[in-house]
């Protein structure tokens, strides 16, 4: 066994131009279809969780002066945060479905090509 030859081929393979794999292209399309929904869900979820926490702090007099107005404002802000957190998942599902519909044809074509070439 010629280890020098194997080593040289391994190094040459690192520098050889790589062909774009159809599987990699399929993964990229899948990520593109899901990315907008994921970005929205994480961003909106974090913001609404912060709004909910702020409302809780206001209503429990952790922040603010503890007056009845601040407690009432805290309850209102907390309810707004609860509503935002509650609608996050349905909005995510709608955005995800829209992204999947947008790229469905391309993904199905590429998946069909991959499955036919594997046979």
Q: Note the run of SSEs as H and E.
A: HHH
How far the N terminus sits from the C terminus, by CA atoms, comes to: 33 Å
| Gyration radius from CA atoms, angstroms | 26 Å
Sheet with most strands: none
- Structural class, please? mainly alpha
Number of strands: 0
Please report which band the strand proportion falls in: under 5%, 5-15%, 15-25%, 25-35%, 35-45% or over 45%.
Answer: under 5%
| Overall geometry | elongated
Mean pLDDT over the full residue set = 91
Which regions are unreliable across 5 or more consecutive residues at pLDDT < 50? none
Report the helical percentage.
over 70%
Q: How many helices?
A: 3
Structure description:
This protein is mainly alpha-helical. The chain contains three helices and no strands. Helix 2 runs antiparallel to helix 3. The chain starts with a helix and ends with a helix. The relative contact order is 0.14.
Which key terms come to mind for this protein?
single chain, 119 residues, mainly alpha, elongated
Question: What is the element layout, followed by pairings?
Answer:
Elements lengths: L2 H13 L6 H38 L8 H51 L1
Helix pairs in contact: 2-3
Give me a quick take on this structure.
The chain is mostly helical. It is 86% helix and 0% strand.
């Amino acid at each position: 066994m010629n280890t020098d030859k194997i080593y040289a081929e391994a190094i040459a393979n690192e520098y050889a131009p790589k062909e774009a794999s159809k599987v990699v292209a399929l993964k990229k399309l899948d990520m593109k279809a899901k990315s907008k929904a994921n970005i929205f869900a994480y961003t909106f979820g974090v913001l609404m969780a912060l709004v909910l926490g702020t409302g809780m702090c206001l209503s429990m007099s952790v922040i603010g002066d503890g007056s009845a107005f601040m407690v009432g404002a805290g309850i209102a802000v907390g309810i707004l945060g609860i509503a935002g957190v509650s609608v996050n998942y349905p909005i995510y599902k709608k955005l995800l479905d829209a992204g999947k519909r947008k790229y469905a044809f391309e993904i199905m074509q590429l998946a069909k090509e991959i499955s036919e070439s594997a046979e």
